[in-house]
Structures are given as C-alpha cells and as structure tokens.
Amino acid sequence: MSLSLTAAILADFRHRFAYEPLLVRAPGRVNLIGEHTDYNGGFVLPAAIDKEIVFAVGLNGASHLRLVAYDLSETLTLTDAADISPSDVHWANYLLGVAAQFQQRGVAVPGFDCVFGGNIPVGAGVSSSAAVECGLAFALNQLLETGLDKLTLARMAQQAEHTYAGVKCGIMDQFASLFGRAGQVVRLDCRSLDYAYFPFDTQACRIVLCNSGVKHSLASTAYNTRRQECEQGVAVLQQHNPAIQTLRDATLADLEAHRAELSPTVYRRCTYVVQENARVETACHHLETGNLTAFGQEMYASHAGLRDDYEVSCAELDALVEAARGLPGVFGARMMGGGFGGCTINLVAPAQVDEFIASVSAAYEEQFGRRPETYQTTIVDGVGVV
Fold it and tell me: Where are the beta strands (DSSP E) in the chain?
C-alpha cells in the first residue's frame, strides 16, 4: 500500500470536508489465465495486486453527495442522495451505480462524501473500474452497517457496471478485488461461484506487466458483441441439448457436431471459450506441481486463441508477447484483460526481470516508436480498511 497516496487522499478529504473519513484500499487485479470465460460461466484464475485505489469516505449528515476524483482534479455534487441516476461524468457512474445498488436493496443511502485516487494504470486491463466499485461498496457497507457479505458486494459492484457503466462484464474483476489473498491466486468457478486458492510466490516468479499504451474501452461495441456471439452459439447448441446453459457446459465435440449451424465467426468464438476453460484447469494442476514452464505454455496458447479465434488482441499486444517468447527466464506471456489494448502479463524468473524489461522495451520501441510502461506486481489481500 502506498502510504504517500493514502496520506494525500486523507489530506484532501480533510481539507475539503473538515471531518475524519473511513479509509479503504481496493486493489486492481491480474488474471493469470481464463480470459472472456467469466461471462460464459467458466473458470478464471485472478489475483489482487499492489496497484490500488484509496478511498476516503464519510457520511456528511446531509442529503447531498460530493464525489472527488483526486487524480483527475474533478468533482461531482448531487443535491439529493435519494435521487441517483446515471451521470454524463464518466468516472462518477462507477460510484453512483454502487450507491444505486444499495438503494435497490432497500438501504437508505444518506448524503456522503468521497475522495478517491490511485496508482492503477487506467486502460491497462488491470481493472481500475472494479476497484472503484468494490472500494465504495465496501466503504458504504461499513459506514451504513449493512452487514452484506463480500460475495453480495461483488455482485452489487458487477451490477453497477452493467447498469451505470454499460459494460456487461462477468464477476471476475469484482470478485478478485474483494476476495484477493496475499501470495495466492484464486480459481473461481463463475457459474457456481465456488473458489479455491493456489499458492503463487511472486518472489520465486515475478509477475511483470507490459503496457502497450493502447487504451481500451470495454464499453466499446466489440466487448458486448463477443458476449452476444457466445450467446448465439449457446442458443444453437441448446436446441440439441437443453442442458447446455452456457459455453461452460459445451464440449469441442458439441461444437463440431453442429458446426454447420454456426457461423464461422461464432464457431471460432465458442471454440476459444471451451478451450480456455480447459486451459485454466490444466494450469491449476501445473501450479500445484510447481511446473511454471508448463503453466507458461498454457498462457501462450491462451494468447493465440485470443488473437486468432476470439480476435480481441491487437498488433501491439502481439508484438509484446512475441518479444517475450524465448527470452531467458520467461515462463509465459499473454495479453490480459478485455483486449484491444492494455497489458500483457509475463511470468519471469527474478534474476532475469531487468534483462526481460530491457529486451522487450527495446523491441517494442523499434517497432512502434515508443517504450512500454512496465510494472512489477505483488499479490496482495483484497479490499480492506486502511
């Protein structure tokens, strides 16, 4: 946790509002493998990381909401907390959507003040939006003494993104931010919401993110289109087997048997998801046996599927993965997040991290004329009070 960041957020809140707030930190996340599987009822393998957003939140004893995006030096004031609706101010919707979720559960949300800011790189695919949602949900749950459990808060944060931000995301990002555990990754079954932790020592193998510098917008048509294409595939398969509720229930044999009824695009989308679910389970086995080399091969296969079948990669992400492949100490690499930009995630032996960053950065600069930002990340606990 950044003490200077926390101190700055606290000082700003005190200066603006002249009372003591509740301080909460909410981490971003990485996802080692299992991309675009969450909204298809499948498996994911995320972890909370030490890129985070800090919140200072307090009940102001009045009816108004005062929201401050510290990093943007922007504010939004609403005169009546009981009258929340989507805003033209993009960042505010992640907060307003959360407040609206409490109201929909019959919780009267009084006036509150919120200053938030962080060091999660926006647009990098490490889920700054989920951290914003989960941090405020956790804070309001504490301040209003509503006693909601973490899974309920994750669902509320997800619904806030659906209804106010317009992104029909799965639950992985919110779950990872709330359920993260230091030194461990968590395999989440996005259908049953069963989960299991697997040890991942970031001292023995570093997680290095390479930011393509290409901003992605998950609310863009492409993300929701991918979801619709998967649903089209399920609709066809269901006609033959009603037990197939999501692509989690489908097999490659199912897809092959009814390939003629699927468009080539829908067939490729569905094939990727079915294969990726299998990769997550295989990758967890490799973690249990400590075989990082085999784990890395699953990452490379994941990237190829995202690039060729799901078509959510881009030239910059592909170049970063290819630059990493074959370098000393690199176990695996792939694009991470919704796609069309953001980061690659790389597993690198500690002794080779500096050489890895230098080599990948040089190759990327030669091709695109700019050096990528890189971040070494540590796996940390989920949302909590500072």
Answer: 22-31, 43-44, 46-59, 65-69, 74-78, 112-118, 184-189, 195-199, 206-211, 330-335, 343-348, 373-377, 384-385
